[in-house]
């Protein structure tokens, strides 16, 4: 999944596109929802230079589309947060995803977009849980200041197939701001309450996103 951040750019997770950047000829972004959409070819995939695949650090990527998409009331670009946001703990956001692991009775993957409201938990508590979870791993999972965690609710959380999707805040004017993007979580049993989902904190990348959108446009 990804989120529209300009009329010709989509933000997603780096691990979703890291194996695609060397041949973009057959790769498209579907802009829209399950009933109204346009397929647009990707012409450039920019992965954050400090992306660390084993640990999913700096797991962000910016995709440039071959042509500007039609920005209208249905498909607006999302607002980016200020780059100096500090604590997010206690805030509630809306997460959007497809959740590929959900299949219907015929075995086909559901194509309905799904939404869930989740609260952001304290990073220290999240770090402790993942340290315990990964203590026997070759590389322990470390929660960094450029990430945040959301408190899962049993059997009601993001899952496989939701990576790169948005964690949004919505103000009283119904305007959405991109707070985070889905990075990783438990490899099995999505929604288990003792292990929260982890998101990239977009306020840590606002300047990188804006500067690279500007650079990308200057190449056009």
UniProtKB/TrEMBL annotation:
Q: Which SMART domains match?
A: Tryp_SPc
Keywords of this protein's UniProt record, alphabetized?
A: Disulfide bond, Hydrolase, Protease, Serine protease
* GO MF terms, alphabetically ordered: serine-type endopeptidase activity
InterPro entries, per the entry: Peptidase_S1_PA, Peptidase_S1_PA_chymotrypsin, Peptidase_S1A, Ser/Thr_Proteases_Immune/Dev, Trypsin_dom, TRYPSIN_HIS, TRYPSIN_SER
Q: Which Gene Ontology BP terms does the record give?
A: proteolysis
Q: Which CDD domains match?
A: Tryp_SPc (cd00190)
Q: For the Peptidase S1 domain, which residue ranges apply?
A: 1-214
Record family assignment? Belongs to the peptidase S1 family. CLIP subfamily.
In terms of PANTHER family, this protein maps to: TRYPTASE-RELATED
Q: What is this protein called?
A: Peptidase S1 domain-containing protein
Q: Which organism is it from?
A: Glossina morsitans morsitans (Savannah tsetse fly)
């Amino acid at each position: 999944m990804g989120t529209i951040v300009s009329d010709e750019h989509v933000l997603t997770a780096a691990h979703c596109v890291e194996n695609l950047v060397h041949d973009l000829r057959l790769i498209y972004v579907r802009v829209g929802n399950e009933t109204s959409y346009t397929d647009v070819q990707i012409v450039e995939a920019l992965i954050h230079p400090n992306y660390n695949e084993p640990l999913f650090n700096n797991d962000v990527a910016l995709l440039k589309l071959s042509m500007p998409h039609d920005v209208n009331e249905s498909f607006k670009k999302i607002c980016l947060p200020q780059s100096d946001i500090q604590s997010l703990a206690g805030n509630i956001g809306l997460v959007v995803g497809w959740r590929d692991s959900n299949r219907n009775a015929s075995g086909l993957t559901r194509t309905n977009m799904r939404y869930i409201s989740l609260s952001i938990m304290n990073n220290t508590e999240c770090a402790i849980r993942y340290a315990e979870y990964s203590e026997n791993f070759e590389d322990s999972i470390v929660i960094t200041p450029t990430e945040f965690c959301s408190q899962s609710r049993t059997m009601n959380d993001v899952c496989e197939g939701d990576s790169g999707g948005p964690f949004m805040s919505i103000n009283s004017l119904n305007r959405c701001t991109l707070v985070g993007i889905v990075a990783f979580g438990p490899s099995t049993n999505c929604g288990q309450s003792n292990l929260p989902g982890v998101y990239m904190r977009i306020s840590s990348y606002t300047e990188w996103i804006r500067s690279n959108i500007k650079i990308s446009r200057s190449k056009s």
